[in-house]
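Chapter review: from sequence to fold.
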Amino acid sequence: MQKTNITKKIHLKLLLIFIGLVAIFVLIIPALSIGTSSKDSLLQEIIRKAEMRQQFILDNIQDATFMGKATYKELDKDGSVKKDVFIQRRIYMKQYGKRYEEYISMVVDGKPLSKEEIEKERKEWQKKSKSEETKMPLSKEAKGDYEYKLLGSDIFNGMPVWVVQFTSKKKEDGYINGTGYILKDKYDIVYAKFVPAKMPSVIKDMDMSLSYSEVQGYWLPSKFEMYMKINVKFLFDMYYRQIKIDDTYSQYKLNSGLQDSLFEAKG
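The token string follows.
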């Protein structure tokens, strides 16, 4: 019983990390706030222009509707699949943090769930995701909680980019550490890789990344990936899992005039 409860808590934590990060990243790019040394004028200029570009995107995208397809896999030490989940959903987002996910289909270990089962899962995931808040480098509340470092320039998918590292000053839940790849010409984020600033003790290895694609002149998330290894000892037993999550986003529709009632009516 104790092992089962602990395992459920681990799965819940993973889902909260996944749902919370994706919810924040889709319309809010992890842009950069001023907090570096004044002598590093180049970094300051990159930060300033990235912030301006981010604000432009936020001002011009009032709402977004898009498709999300997520796969969640748990693998044992020998690589055998222990859990396999596929979720297809339509995601609605609006400024000021409004978000609703319409679950279209869900398959767990090869078994398609009924509409009633899907709706139950949707409400449960949505309820749990509200308890976790990611404090992004962009947010006013966490603006002073991050430090930045210019790692240099590079070529990413044929595009010249600046590579900037962001590190949380706080090792607390909700903060992240990582690296952003910023276009040199437009100052959009095109790729980011990151981990929680406070790593759960049961997680021995973890990598997350978010890729962006250009949609109607804006660079928006196209794929979220997460990989981790979990090691937990239950007295004489060892619980080991590899977790892999891929979530792809496509078919964006921007500024279609979503009504507030869409979000208020869905619980």
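Two observations follow directly from the output. The chain has one domain: 2-253. Residues 172 and 198 are 5 Å apart (CA to CA).
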